[in-house]
Amino acid sequence: MTGQIAVGLAGVLVVAAAVYGVGVASAKYRLADVGAWLTARGKGLVVHVNGPAAKVDGKTGVIPQMRGHNIKVVQDGATVLIIDLDTGVVSRLDPSQLDIGTSRPLGKGIQVLAGAGKAYTVDSVKGVVQQIDPVGLTPVGASATLPPILGQAGIDARGTLWVPVSGNGEVAAFKDGRLQPPVRAGKPGDGLALTIAAGDPVVTNSAAATATVVKPSGARLTVSLPTTVRQAGRGGVLAPAATDGKIVPLLVPGTGSLVTVDTDAGRYSSTRLAMPAHRYRPPQALGAKVYIPDETAGALLVYDSAANRFESPVPVTGRPARLDVFVRDGMLWANDPSGPHAVVIDRQGGEKGIDKYTDRVPGGPKRRTLPLPGGEAPPPRTRPPSRRPNRPGPGEPPSAPSNVSVTPGSGTMRIDFQPSQGDGVLGYVLKDVPSGMTVSPSAIRPGAGPFTFTVRGGDCGREYRFRVAVRYRDAAGRTREQVSAAGDPVRPCVAPGAPTGLTAQATASGARVAWAPPPGAGAVTYRLAYSGPVSGTATGSRTSVTLGNVWMNGAYTFTLTAANDAGAGSATTLDTTLTGPTRNYAVQSNGKSNAYIRATPDGNNGAIVATMYDNNGEMVAVHCKEKGAYYRHPRDSSLAGDMYTKITWRGKTGYVLGYLISTPGGWTSYAGPTVWRCK
């Protein structure tokens, strides 16, 4: 940790703290329970904003060393960390006192994260991960090293740190000073993006066009995304660092493809949006709406996924600017860190502008607006133009249908679209439907929504692309068509659910494992992983398998997943103890002599349970075979070895030397799976 955490701090941060309109109780300030800390680097400020009121109710005063620097705020309950990205100095803000408690130079370029009551640092270049004390900012426990370069990390709901390791094609887990078993998310070198969705890690692999969800149980769900995701380029898709709910929105730069992944159901919807060549940041989901930060316009593009249409953009600055956008406490926050403006949006889509330089909340004293750097007044808030298509003029053909959205189903593909603008519309039809598929309805009349086609049929192993055509009557009375751009590719299937009824039974042929297919799964491939005294995997399309190499008694865990070309579903797990079947075999090599049944396979040393005399041919119950102490017969050198057979004879159970029982094969070797190993 030498490179991450230094002992001393050069210089002292001088901070003046203030709180407005909230009163003082004892020596502590009360800030809004629903709110967020926002940066205003032009003034060297970090302000707290009351979410419902959209007003500043507390701030730190000027921090001279941070004025004009790129500042990031990491907030998790009472843990508020201020990171100076230009110097690598991390400071802890005490929300109760509104002052800086501890400051340490952790290193420029170090990721600092806080969540679920834990805090971590990640050195992406050196590959070092370390838990830290969120109060003292000092190391907690041992660090660990991963192969660099590391991706943007995240903390799940259980306080585990997850780090994308693209060099291995894995996402690594770190907790309590130890690396946990990694999760495979692709091939070495694949670009991986991590999102913590409702507390669970979700890894998007742009190269493979997949999203892998890691459940709290350790089970994984893999969703195959449309292949347009692979067009994201070297930087990969734009994915949020975290979402409040199970929906993860992904934006494919340059194509306008917006993919929303339902990490709970294991399926996606994809929309091809008409978006200008602007600079965008990762989209954020709140309720049914997706907000896309457009830094070129200084605004949020708003897509209503339920209605499949754009709404009017939400202005933040009205000019090109960097935007920090995140969801916290059920509200979406969009902040211009270089200026005074920010916006907060609730789940109903209600938006409120924030002036970070004005310190007034309802019931508080009226205070003057703090001037911008240089003394200029805040710029007026302007609303960018709507993204809705303009209505064609008289005599012009109607616009083509827009926002062609596709959603895969079990044996179906749903295509939604926005209707055309203009006059003379006769109706809509779906184009590019291969032979053998059916479309319902065959046509849609104007104004007779919902504007949705459902296609049935097709092959799960193939992607299909569709266009929507508007039929209209031109000025000469002729019927014409205007065709939309093609939507994203889609399959007529979804990732299967979890298999049911998983059972395992010990047989004379090995362990027989059987199950029932997921409901409505269709053609799937199963992968069975097993661990215990014997470990391995098996794949196939049948709903049962006999594992001929599993013939040792003991506790086993069987994990079964079903997969098709749409992805791999959630796993079904069975923990059970297997004991090989008991079969009857004859006693041999015991004529006119004693054969001792002992409590343990210890040759002449084990305690004697019973003694068999002159009983060749008598049938005894054989349970299993096991190696023990080496034994050599005093009068027959061929009767030497360390194999023992566990039997029950006349109500007595114990071990006898292997040569005394006529089990299959040589007596010095195991007879599995006909006779299982004892342990």
What structural keywords apply?
679 residues, mainly beta, Immunoglobulin-like, SH3 type barrels, ten-stranded mixed β-sheet, seven-stranded antiparallel β-sheet, 55 strands, flat, disordered N terminus
Secondary structure blueprint with pairings:
Layout: E1 17-19, E2 24-25, E3 28-29, E4 35-40, E5 45-50, E6 55-60, E7 71-76, E8 79-84, E9 89-94, E10 99-105, E11 111-115, E12 118-123, E13 128-132, E14 139-145, E15 154-155, E16 161-165, E17 170-175, E18 178-184, E19 192-197, E20 200-205, E21 210-214, E22 220-224, E23 242-243, E24 247-252, E25 257-262, E26 267-272, E27 284-286, E28 289-294, E29 299-304, E30 309-315, E31 324-328, E32 331-335, E33 341-345, E34 351-355, E35 402-408, E36 412-418, E37 425-431, E38 438-440, E39 452-456, E40 467-473, E41 479-483, E42 500-507, E43 510-516, E44 525-531, E45 536-540, E46 544-547, E47 554-564, E48 567-568, E49 572-578, E50 583-586, E51 594-598, E52 608-613, E53 619-632, E54 640-649, E55 652-657
Parallel strand pairs: 19-23
Antiparallel strand pairs: 1-6, 2-3, 4-5, 5-6, 7-8, 8-9, 9-10, 11-12, 12-13, 13-14, 15-16, 16-17, 17-18, 19-20, 20-21, 21-22, 22-48, 24-25, 25-26, 26-35, 27-28, 28-29, 29-30, 31-32, 32-33, 33-34, 35-36, 36-39, 37-40, 38-39, 40-41, 42-43, 43-46, 44-45, 44-47, 47-48, 47-49, 50-53, 51-52, 53-54, ...
